[in-house]
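INFO  loader      accepted 1 record
INFO  loader      residues=252
INFO  predictor   begin
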Amino acid sequence: MALAYAPVQAPVSEGSPSRDELIAQYLPEVKRIVSRVVCHLPPGVDREDLLHAGIIGLIQAIERFDPTRNNKFITYATFRIKGAVLSELRSRDFLGRSVRKKLRQMEKASGQLELKLGRSASAEELASELGVRVDELDEIKKMSCISFISFEEIGIHSAEEKEDLISRLANGDIEDALTLTRLKEIQTALAQAVEELPEKEKMVISLYYGDELTMKEAGEVLEVSESRVSQIHSQAVARLRKKLQREGLLED
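INFO  predictor   done
INFO  writer      dumping tokens
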């Protein structure tokens, strides 16, 4: 898909790279982010549309980045790129209410089975409880991993609130005491919940989010298949989300 944009003043000083040069320089980062998202999506999702959205996010980052703030451009750009890609998915209802509803049903059923069985339910047991096929359950799990925590789950609903929070997070400029306290509570609880994960799940979370490896690369490190890493990752994410919901840090 061809990318069209109007010339604007890039937020760089004289002698710094031009906007087009910055786009070319950071295009591999856009492709990396899109690749990490696509691996969780069902076949048929147009990768080029997501790539286009990611480039638009990069352009917005270049236009709006304030070099006088004590923050790296790549940090700000990553927020913008990810936000643009996820917004594109939501606009196409890949991450709409229906997916969220299925996710809540899966998490509820998983928790009930865990209490009943005294252990984590197998994929077959959970699928049977939900009345779906195992492959359908796998698709729900994949979709649940695209957006680890949604804005809606932390009480941010309007487009204006989301845009404002993205900008402030990227710039490290959060002055609202309530928002800052809530985000710190989530961060602390999440770190503790990760430490309580089974060892394999903790390792996958560390490799995927900490080292930013792909599912395939993480599989090579752990000497398991890419699909197995995806399964472990899905289990870990579901477990972490349930933990945060129990503590009242995420809305059900």
